[in-house]
Prior knowledge:
Number of strands: 25
Oligomer: single chain
Radius of gyration: 21 Å
CATH topology of the largest domain: Spore Coat Polysaccharide Biosynthesis Protein SpsA, Chain A
Number of helices: 6
Largest sheet: 7 strands, mixed
Number of domains: 2
CATH class of the largest domain: Alpha Beta
CATH architecture of the largest domain: Alpha-Beta Complex
Strand order of the largest sheet: 5-4-1-6-11-8-12
Shape: elongated
CATH superfamily of the largest domain: Spore Coat Polysaccharide Biosynthesis Protein SpsA, Chain A
Strand content: 25-35%
Amino acid sequence: MKALILTGGFGTRLRPLTLHTPKPILPIANRPLLLYQIEMLKKVGIREIILATCYKPRLLKNTLDKLRLPGIRLHYIQEKRPLGTGGAVKNAASFLDDTFLVLNGDILSDFDLKEIIRRHRKNRAEATLALARVKDPTLYGLVETDSSQRVRRFLEKPAWDEITAQTISAGFYVFEPSLLADIPPGVPYSLERRLFPHLLETDRRLFAHTYSGYWLDVGTNEKYLQANMDVLEKGLFSKRPPAGRLLGSRCRVGEQVQFHGPVCVGADCRIGRGAVLDHCVILEKSFIGQGARLENCIVGRRVRIGEHATIGSGTVLGDGCAIQSYSHL
């Protein structure tokens, strides 16, 4: 079985972090987000992966090439213009000649792919959607199923009085290649808004599998920070105990530096004497000055923060920023 990962989005809600870096290779606990999905696929025996690219494809490829993934064969399909989720699938049709998986490249999850594949085959489905339970489904598109987990209705961003379930699409799908004929070639097309409603209208075999484990859409700066904090604080995706803090290679930390809560520091960073880091992410090659205080914030690559500066909650500093000493943000 092959897998297609959708990595072509521009990541506009994650700016300024994505101005120079595609969202799927932003680091989560100092590892590219995409690596977590590749490892998830490898666990179920999938060794051939197609990456649907559009935004900064060369940087994405160079980053993955450096990881030297043993036993994994990667193919890159570049879109000349954004084709949407369905158009990206159609664009990779030449690789997809048997049952295949599709994954949105911005999801962090420990989803059991083996179980959704098993259910897809048992139900003789043409498409099976992974569903996740969320506390607030008004932010997403609701998916309703019957007792056999066959999909019965989609409801986009429902009001609270319209909610009949708390299951949303988790961004993982199992497809039969017969579905490719339903997607027009070379034009933008959406799986969620076009293909799936079409399958319901034509009474095709569309099923779902609901999962209750960890799931996070890493689509905003707030969620990006949460993803890093979750991996460190909860010890997700690791056999080791929760790390609490993570320092990349060749980091230099001055005397009397304080770490509070989960903190992730990228490679080649320097942290000055007496700095205080509280629930924050600092990407590679950044400098934190003496006595600086950072709380619930994200610092991009090659950022320079002056002495005794304060970077407050919710702040996101893009790559290459320079913050003067004693500044308050």
